[in-house]
Design a protein that fits this description.
Blueprint (H helix, E strand, L loop, with lengths): L1 E2 L4 E4 L3 H12 L4 E5 L13 E3 L3 H10 L4 H8 E7 L9 E6 L1 H13 L4 E5 L2 E8 L7 E8 L4 E3 L2 E4 L8 E4 L2 E4 L10 H8 L5 E7 L2 E3 L9 E3 L22 E5 L2 H9 L5 H4 L13 H7 L7 E6 L6 E5 L7 H9 L9 E3 L2 E7 L14 E2 L1 E3 L9 H20 L12 H12 L23 H12 L4 H23 L1 E2 L2 E2 H5 L7 H6 L1 H7 L2 H12 L1 H19 L16 H10 L4 H6 L5 H18 L2
Helix pairs in contact: 1-10, 2-10, 2-12, 3-4, 6-9, 13-17
């Protein structure tokens, strides 16, 4: 049996797979998604939440380019909060708690209604390739073979395997193959990737127990409400209309910590059962107790998994301790003394491909047409996966069409920062996006993601007419508001001058001037204009820095450049650059293990070669 005629084939139906399939299909490529189970597409495997610091900005970027995650979240969200409100609007970040079932069903509906997209249930056993013909030992993708022996032909394949690749789940001494609770692992695919010449490594992540809502004593816990006026993720969403729910807060205590310390020898991360690295910035409760021994308590957020769900996600105590220890631990926490555990916490180890083996388009360097996106590249998080999936889907479709790949710069998007970090620096632990990773974070704000990226999405064909019209209208409103700041005067000063004051948010000015009041009720437009006024000098300085950085990015390095030919270059630099194959001087300078003197030697050699070939 053979399915022939797909241009792009996606392996996996998680957040990277969803965006890859949506992008490729909407760009006109005949697209197929192969996933174990159709009903598991879009499943929120861990925390039922989208966004956060850095992550929320990425979701807005995905939406601005024409992706799906923001639109799905706006329909499935049950609590919306803008984080960092106590700081300036330049660092605000949206986050939403989501209904797990609504999120997954909404994602499936988008994909099932998408033209050019076919969803196939099954497991991929191997990726097939043939020699490229360029004489350098490279290969080209020809398709995939399923576990039942069926072959599906396609010149491009995007692997978005999440935590399923060679996955093993740990709960105490128990070890069970699987990439997610109740779901099988992808076993054969790891061997296939190795046979194609890719190196694999192992990483680890974890999840906390879930509790039955009816057994939690919420009356003893602090409430954490959402925003009174929720900010949508999608630029297409006018406003959030569904009811919002409360989360609740509790804490661990000295008794819990003592219990954990007494059972560390039974924790897979400390017994030697798990040797791979887990996410540093989302540690297990075992790690927290050991690494932060001076703290006598750690915060826990009780987050409902849906409007009608009986399950409560216990955010803050990810664990792989044995079940009997988890049971005792939960009973020691205030408000949870009589709580029933609906699902035990566990850790999962899985295979990944160290990302220096892909380029900035997310295509592997050894196999033409083979793209990787999501946790297979060593990242952690739904948002990081979705951003990679969107870029991989775009570039797979463009490869089939004979177009050059789209590469997002570090000054264009957090998604660009992430991909550049992956391909130039690699990972030693699951990569998580933070605003601190970006040099130009004042420019990479949640409010201006459409200004940064929607014109690009329109140019490549992913932004449809409705979104483009909405963008043009918002752009016009923002420009009119800025003009009003200059023209309106109050007590001898322009509104712009008043807004430059540190504690002035403009509310009293909006109440005074009818021309401003309509804009003040639009938090996105108002926040964007306010940032541009308050941080005008800083923004101009950052724009100058961006211009200087782009000069380095514009200095291209030939793909066949021989780094061993550079006199006096360190062996480590030769090895790192030969593995990474940086596209330009900027990427070369950011490669891990590189010194400034290495970059100087490279630039001298490139200049000498350019003089030799110039007419």
């Amino acid at each position: 049996m053979s399915h022939v005629g797909y241009d792009v084939l996606i392996i996996g139906g998680g957040h990277a797979g969803i965006e890859a399939a949506w992008a490729a299909a909407n760009l006109g490529a005949r697209t197929a998604m192969v996933t174990f189970r159709r009903d598991a597409i879009g499943r929120l495997s861990c925390n039922p939440a989208i966004g956060g610091i850095g992550k929320g900005q990425m979701v807005r970027e995905i939406d601005a380019l024409g992706g799906l995650m923001g639109r799905i979240t706006d329909q499935a969200g049950i609590q919306f909060r803008m984080l960092n409100r106590r700081k300036g609007p330049a660092v605000w970040a949206p986050r939403a708690q989501a209904d797990r079932e609504i999120y997954a069903s909404t994602a499936r509906r988008f994909l099932e209604d998408c033209p050019n997209l076919t969803i196939l249930e099954g497991g991929v056993e191997s990726i097939d390739a043939r020699p490229h013909g360029n004489g350098r030992g490279a290969r080209c993708v020809t398709g995939v073979t399923l576990a039942d022996g069926a072959f599906i032909a396609s010149p491009t394949v995007i692997v978005t395997s999440g935590t399923f690749l060679g996955a093993l789940m740990h709960c105490g001494e128990s070890q069970v193959p699987g990439g997610r609770h109740g779901e099988a692992a992808a076993i054969g695919l790891s061997g296939s990737l190795r046979s194609l010449g890719l190196e694999l490594g192992r990483l680890k992540t974890g999840t906390p127990p879930r509790l039955l809502r009816s057994t939690v004593d919420f009356g003893r816990l602090d409430e954490q409400p959402g925003d009174a006026r929720p900010t949508p993720f999608s630029f297409l969403t006018e406003r959030i209309t569904q009811p919002q729910v409360c989360c609740h807060v509790t804490w661990t205590n000295a008794r819990v910590h003592e219990l954990i310390r007494a059972n560390l020898h039974r924790a897979p991360m400390y017994s030697g059962q798990i040797e791979s690295r887990g996410p540093r910035y989302c540690p297990s409760i075992e790690d927290k107790v050991v690494r932060f021994a001076d703290k006598d308590r750690h915060q826990i957020f009780l987050e409902p998994e849906g409007y009608d769900s009986e399950r409560i996600y216990v955010n803050g105590i990810s664990t792989s301790l044995p079940r009997d220890v988890q049971r005792q631990m939960i009973a020691m926490i205030e408000g949870l003394e009589r709580a029933t555990i609906a699902q035990w916490g566990y850790a999962v180890e899985y295979d990944f491909v160290p990302p220096e083996q892909i380029d900035a388009s997310l295509m592997t360097k050894r196999v033409r047409g083979l793209f990787l996106a999501g946790q297979i590249n060593g990242t952690s998080g739904y948002e990081e996966a979705a951003g990679q999936g969107l870029v991989a889907g775009i570039n797979a479709a463009r490869l089939v069409a004979g177009d050059d790949p789209i590469v997002l710069g570090r000054d264009e998007a957090y998604v660009g920062v992430m991909i550049d970090d992956l391909v130039t620096r690699g990972v030693t632990e699951p990569y998580r996006m933070f605003t601190s990773r970006a040099e130009h974070r004042l420019h990479l704000r949640y409010d201006n993601a459409d200004a940064r990226l929607t014109p690009l999405g329109r140019r490549i064909g992913l932004v449809a007419d409705v979104r483009w019209a909405r963008f043009q209208e918002r752009k016009s409103r923002a420009e009119r508001l800025l003009r009003a700041f200059d023209s309106l005067r109050f007590e001898g000063r322009s509104v712009r001058e008043w807004l430059r004051r540190p504690n002035e948010d403009g509310r009293r000015l909006a109440e005074r001037f009818e021309e401003l009041s309509a804009y003040y009720t639009d938090p996105d437009i108002w926040a964007r204009a306010l940032v541009e006024v308050k941080y005008d000098g800083y923004i101009q300085r950052q724009q100058r820095e961006i211009k200087r950085c782009r000069e380095f990015e514009a200095h291209r390095i030939p793909s066949d450049f021989d780094y061993g030919s550079i006199p006096n270059l360190r062996r480590e630099a030769i090895d790192r650059w030969s593995a990474v194959l940086p596209r330009n001087i900027g990427q070369a300078a950011r490669t891990s293990g590189i010194h400034p003197t290495d970059v100087t030697l490279l630039m001298v050699q490139l200049a000498a070669k350019e003089r030799l070939v110039s007419p």
